[in-house]
Amino acid sequence: MSPPAAAAVRDRLRIAIQKSGRLGEPSRALLTACGLEFRESRDRLFCYGESLPIDLLLVRDDDIPGLLADGVCDLGIVGRNVLAEQSAERRAAGKPEVAREWRALGFGACRLDLAVPESWDWQGAAQLAGKRIATSYPALVRAWLAEQGIAAEVVLLSGSVEIAPRLGQADLICDLVSSGATLAANQLKPVQTLLQSEAVLAGPVREFADARGQWASLLLRRMDGVLRLKDSRLLLFQAAREAVPALIELLPDAEPPTVMRLDGEDMLALQALCHGAVTWQRLEELRHAGARGLMVVPVERTLA
Ligand code: PRT
Ligand code: ZN
């Protein structure tokens, strides 16, 4: 099965995600949690949506903004770093914006950092004048340098950026960092963050004007439900009426609780959807403030 031509189909939605790599699995898991089921083609590049008219395209992450721009796919899951780089490139070339971030998805977190040799005494951006910066993100680095009013040389490297200073190709680097272990292993230290990144749902600047709009809205609604529930738990407990205000104060991350009166007693039964972690420590505090019969229940789905 091969994907239908881009212009021919406008009643199905096509989402591009990373085929492998860091974002592939979590992207699929998110779509599955939204109720999407797929049948894979033999070449494993195109997956037909069986539960909804939403198909998948499995590609390299760097290709996703271009596929969106060309209308080959309608939505994409990609690192903000990749989307921002290609947007900065279009801006620098005077081209109009074609894709924007629709939602931050809470996985694939990293930073785009400037990192200098550990021996440098870092005193601020002015120190970069006349230096060579190795990076795979030239448009973002140039835009940042321009904002700072600094003239420095940008050296484009597509991989192994972190060894460039040791090889004499550059004085410092600008690269993605998550744990910082790669920088440390190369005797570099992060000194400035240009971008905080995570996986995002990218889509067109304008809403869809055809049938795809309804599928995009449905997907967004479900995605919001899944993202909201990530750390959410339903908390059930009982308490005397007079203890309730203090208990609610202990639940600042909860939605307004549902309160039920228990027959013939002054005890109330409460249920509250908490959006933060419900730890043993929090349960002990609630118990101390008068809650009894505490129960923490996982929540499978919500729909606003
Ligand atoms: O094959 P394809 O082109 O699709 O994949 P890729 O190899 O280009 O991308 P991949 O899978 O490595 O990364 C996909 C996305 O994951 C990135 O665009 C980021 O949005 C996100 N991400 C999150 C990261 C990292 N964390 C990360 N640590 N991408 C890359 N790194 C690299 C970084 O470049 C450096 O080499 O990991 C190294 C640093 O890691 P630490 O933990 O040592 O700091
Ligand atoms: Zn890539």
Characterization of the model:
It is a single chain. With 304 residues, the protein is α+β, with helices and mostly antiparallel strands. The chain has three domains: 5-107 and 199-228, Periplasmic binding protein-like II (D-Maltodextrin-Binding Protein, domain 2, 3-Layer(aba) Sandwich); 110-196, Periplasmic binding protein-like II (D-Maltodextrin-Binding Protein, domain 2); 233-298, 2-Layer Sandwich (Alpha-Beta Plaits). It has helices at residues 24-33, 64-69, 80-92, 138-148, 164-167, 181-185, 212-228, 244-249, 280-288; strands at residues 13-18, 38-40, 46-49, 54-59, 75-79, 99-104, 110-117, 132-135, 153-156, 172-177, 188-197, 199-204, 233-240, 258-261, 267-274, 292-298. A seven-stranded mixed sheet has the order 2-3-4-1-5-12-6, with helices on both faces. The protein has a five-stranded mixed sheet with strand order 9-8-10-7-11. A hairpin with a 4-residue loop joins β3 and β4. α3 crosses α4 (138-148). The longest helix has 17 residues, at 212-228. The relative contact order is 0.13. The model has no long low-confidence stretch (mean pLDDT 93). The structure holds phosphoribosyl ATP and zinc ion. The site of zinc ion has 3 residues, from loops.
